[in-house]
Write a structure and sequence with these properties.
This protein is α+β, with helices and mostly antiparallel strands. It has a domain of 96 residues: Aminopeptidase, CATH 3.40.630.30. It is built from four helices and seven strands, in the order E-H-H-E-E-E-H-E-H-E-E. A seven-stranded mixed β-sheet has the order 1-2-3-4-5-7-6, sandwiched between helices. It is globular and about 35 Å long.
């Protein structure tokens, strides 16, 4: 059974780092110095686990920005990302955010569009990967 926890960084760090290491650093070749220490301390983190094993993570910053969303490769296209997004949207509404923002990898743009996010601005490169800014109004 999929379980999603909302945690601060001190409690999410070990499991979130495991997933982000596997996805961003090992799979996508993001340099380690680009992955760690940029906004984790002040964000709320979601960690999804299946049978006690972490399989996905994301963070929600105080300004309504979703970031570092990652699902282990063998668990993609099974609803985990959508469950995470539903929890992120619910949490944002509970915190009275009016807009959610994110920088989507172009390969994931369709996923975010399915969840109501709209692209804006020009494509940009972050850590060697093409991205597009997206946002979703909550009210």
């Amino acid at each position: 059974m999929l379980k999603i926890l909302l945690l601060d960084w001190s409690r999410a760090q070990i499991t979130a780092k495991h997933v982000r290491q596997a996805v961003f650093i090992n799979e996508q070749n993001v340099p380690e110095e680009d992955e760690w220490g940029h906004g984790d301390e002040d964000a709320l983190h979601l960690v999804a686990s299946l049978d006690g094993n972490p399989i996905a993570t994301a963070r929600l910053s105080a300004d309504g920005t979703i970031g570092r969303m990652a699902v282990l490769k063998s668990f993609r296209n099974q609803g985990t990302g959508s469950a995470m997004m539903a929890q992120l949207i619910k949490t944002a509404r509970q915190n009275r955010f009016r807009v959610l923002k994110l920088n989507a990898q172009r390969t994931a743009e369709g996923f975010y569009a399915k969840h109501g996010f709209v692209a804006y601005g020009d494509e940009f490169i972050d850590a060697g990967i093409a991205h597009i800014a997206m946002q979703r109004d909550l009210y």
